[in-house]
Amino acid sequence: MSLDSYYLGFDLSTQQLKCLAIDQNLKIVHSETVEFEKELSHYHTKKGVYIHGDTIECPVAMWLEALDLVLLKYHKAKFPLERVMAISGSCQQHGSVYWSSQAESLLEQLNRKSEKDLLHYVGPAAFSRQTAPNWQDRSTAKQCQEFEQCVGGPEKMAQLTGSRAHFRFTGPQILKISQLEPETYEKTKAISLVSNFLTTILVGHLVGLEEADACGMNLYDIRERKFSDELLNLIDSSSKDKTIRQKLMGTPMKTMIVGTICKYFVEKYGFNANCKVSPMTGDNLATICSLPLRKNDVLVSLGTSTTVLLVTDKYHPSPNYHLFIHPTLPGHYMGMICYCNGSLAREKIREQLNSEHAEKSDDWALFNQAVLDDSENNDNELGVYFPLGEIVPSVKAVEKRVIYDTKTGRIERVVEKFKDKTHDAKNIVESQALSCRVRISPLLSDSNTRSEQKLNEDTIVKFDYDESPLREYLNKRPERTFFVGGASKNEAIVKKFAQVIGATKGNFRLETPNSCALGGCYKAMWSFLYDSDKITAPFDKFLNENFPWHVMESVSDVNNEKWDRYNSKIVPLSELEKTLT
Ligand code: ADP
Ligand code: XUL
Questions:
Q1: Helix, strand or coil for residue 45?
Q2: How many CB atoms lie within 10 A of CB 388?
């Protein structure tokens, strides 16, 4: 009989609950999923949510049923749950769960009983509100305004909490509930994020917020590492018993292990009574734990949209991106930049190009050839291609092509089209990648590489709210870039992104269908081993040393010598963005 140890990672996302298991060699050994719409159809959700205009919510009871169901699948598969040493996981970010005053006593039953199911013990009576706002909700415009006014605008808000006020962030959501549903708010004993809701169920008692995920609330003062009094008072300045501070259960947790799994799961599914629970965290925070990312490493997700995640020790907030405390690396932050226009914008250019050449519209061959064709000179061209309104920069839908003076970087004229449609293929990928490069730049350390080009380094460039001399951008390169997501299959797109971003220690690509849950598995394993003094390595070192590197493909033939070739496009990009509204 093998004596393997296992670690579980949950992924409680919008449409499904997944549970992944790894062994002590970090190899995935089992996975089960419950799809909400299909398998829990009696909740009548569409893609996991209820939509009423701008209001988007999820039924909390559905998550309880899903947890029983996913573990039942493990049980039926005869997976040895008694050898699971620790559990952690990932949950959709920003959502909030409202516990009633009976919650504690109802949860307590999970430490004694197991005959019935979770819904029976922790059913509707445990909640003062049966639904949780979902991250897609857009109903809090008024509350976001109140939040930003309270601290003095979007920049101040970003400095304080790592992000400007966003509809989906939990603080504005709680404020809305306190204003529109005062009785519900009054009856609420405690408020969880989805992450500590799941942790709570696993350990069988109310537990506080996980600190990294608490940064997705617009309430947490990241530098002071405590809730902002100003913002808490905006929600609820009463000095009565049940103040917002008490509802949020005090200061968020920084612990690696929060407790052991409760009796319900031990008796019902055969977990070991010593199985440890490490706090669940938000999905993006779990994603960075799924890869061996260290300071100055960047993850570029080329999905429908483009998301850039990076690890930094610089607290340089901006209203255009998000900073969260890193869930496993003390003194570090996770930066997150979300672009709306990624794959769909590239697809549009590909289709136009193919139709000019009577090629099949969904073939990437012509597009790819154009992207890498260095015989075509596009040195004085720049374009932005935003078929959808963009988040970074924050502008309306627009497509704009310009010709600029290569000596000064100043824009000479706007053009309807470039010399050839192939130039659009090259220019869209270059400008998308360049936008990533200039936006991650303030979060990177100096890399001691100098450009040979003669540029006026004192020229002031402006991106979003940041204004600084060009020189600030000429010396900042990430160490490693990791590419994931649908378009990372595309050799040409990845090569161009890699050239423009210019990582000094390599570019990698991998398929990551399970990244959130896998990040949870790795966090559970490292937390368990570190907490029980079996290892001393910090999380990044542990993962770098133990990571199954064979799953990773090195994009090695990127000529990084060409990195500084894109330096001369920084000023024109800044100038072009200034003209957008
Ligand atoms: P999501 O972000 O919705 O999870 P994916 O990560 O699966 O999506 O990425 C989907 C996108 O990947 C599609 O919009 C498609 O344009 C793009 N894509 C898939 N294969 C390729 C390819 N070979 N070349 C370029 N783009 C691709
Ligand atoms: C991040 C965000 C989404 C959700 C998806 O800010 O809103 O990524 O976390 O679950």
A1: coil
A2: 14
Residue 139, Cα to own-chain centre: how many angstroms?
21
CA nearest 132: which of 184, 78, 96, 172? Answer: 96
The residue with tokens 């089209």 is 417
Nearest-atom number in ligand 2 for the CA of 168 is 7
**What is the Cα–Cα distance from 107 to 122, expressed in whole angstroms?**
6
Q: Assess contact for 225 and 214: CB atoms under 8 A.
A: no
| Residue type at 289 in one-letter notation | C
Cα 14 to ligand 2 centre (Å): 9
Q: What is the pLDDT of residue 240?
A: 59
Nearest ligand 2 atom to the CA of 283 is: 9
Query: How much distance in Å is there from the Cα of 484 to the middle of ligand 1?
Result: 10
The yes-or-no verdict on residue 2 having pLDDT over 70 is no
Cβ distance 302 to 486 under 8 Å?
Answer: yes
Interval 188-224: pLDDT, tens: 999 999 999 999 999 999 999 999 999 999 999 999 9
Cα 487 to middle of ligand 1, angstroms? 4
Distance 42 CA to ligand 1 centre (A): 32
What six digits make up the tokens of 26? 């970090």
> Is the beta carbon of 303 within 6 A of some atom in ligand 1?
yes
Q: Are strands 553-554 and 507-509 parallel, antiparallel or unpaired?
A: antiparallel
Cα gap 62→139, rounded to integer Å: 23
Task: Measure the CA–CA gap between 361 and 20, rounded to whole angstroms.
Answer: 38
In our burial notation (b when 16+ CB lie closer than 10 A, e otherwise), range 451-462 reads beeebeeebebe
CB of 394 closer than 8 Å to CB of 341: no
The C-alpha atoms of residue 308 and residue 501 are separated, in whole angstroms, by: 12
pLDDT digits (tens, 9 = 90+) for 555-573: 876 766 678 889 999 999 9
